[in-house]
Design a protein that fits this description.
The protein is an alpha/beta fold. The protein has a single domain, classed as 3-Layer(aba) Sandwich (Deoxyhypusine Synthase), CATH 3.40.910. Strands 7-2-1-9-10-11 form a six-stranded parallel β-sheet, sandwiched between helices. A three-stranded antiparallel β-sheet has the order 3-5-4. Strands 6-8 form a two-stranded parallel ribbon. Helix 12 links the parallel strand 10 and strand 11. Helix 3 runs parallel beside helix 8. It is globular and about 55 Å long.
Amino acid sequence: MKPVKDYEIKSKADLNELIKQMETSGGFTSTKLTAGVDIIKRMIGDEESLNFLSFPADIIATGTRGIIRDMVKEKWFDVIITTCGTLDHDLARSFKDYYHGSFDMDDAELHKKGINRLGNILVPNDSYGIIIEEKMRKFLKEINAKELSTYELVWELGKKLKKDSIMYWCWKNEMPMIVPGITDGAVGYQLWQYSQNHKLKIDVLKDEKLLSDLVWNAKKSGALIIGGGISKHHTLWWSQFAKGLNYAVYVTTAQEFDGSLSGARPKEAISWGKINEKAKFVNIEMDATVALPIIFASLI
């Protein structure tokens, strides 16, 4: 099995001509992709804008982890909102490999071999639960904290990880990563286990205090929102208190017909005041593992 590697897109990679042709040639999603690139350029170039990056954990199991890491490294955003699985995969892949697989593999056979399937990515037990348990037990003893917000937890973990990790650059750049569903994952489970014999409290209300201070003092706001779920909703929820996002780019494959938040389009958020009526926004219906490398290469 070949290990999954992160993207390493250098500044010499020039997609400007391709993006220009997408913009002028038309196409169902390509024009939305070019519009998204333009909005993100405006957003990160607007010094008055408080910018959010929101994404679910699944893409961190892929090489797209390298794109997210480099966006954090470039300081394009001010706050990250994500799920506990991001901590899981970022930590695990700092020490072990994930592998290429297929959507059509025999899952019963994989289970017998101690291999978990995430789409077409293979995650052996040794590369996930076992390594996370080993490292989290060690790290929590070293951190020896009685109370942490989730962003402080991420910074403490980031100090102990390699430069190829997202959490390392969150710590290095003092960029808060907020994890509202912190117990929903392997890292969260290890926090609970540790708390049974040690005094440890994860203060999610401290996360909310930080978000409140940032949002209520923001003159403008923007967000690149990947996928859906709690990370998308938490970003939009707080954005309404900044009179709605002034810039919004969604990248999603979810459908809106079932009324789900994950499938809801940006214009629906306008009705809630979560996106400003005069905002620049676009919904890009595209697999994030395809869209993000193109967006990043164009921006860089």
